[in-house]
Amino acid sequence: MCPPLINDVWVYGGDDDTIFRLVTLGSIELQKQGYTRIGAENVVGPMPPFGGIIKNADDLWKIFAFVRSKYDGDPAYKFGAPPGQ
Question: Which of 3, 8, 37, 55 is within CB 3.0–4.6 Å of 41 for a Cys-Cys bond?
Answer without folding.
Answer: 3
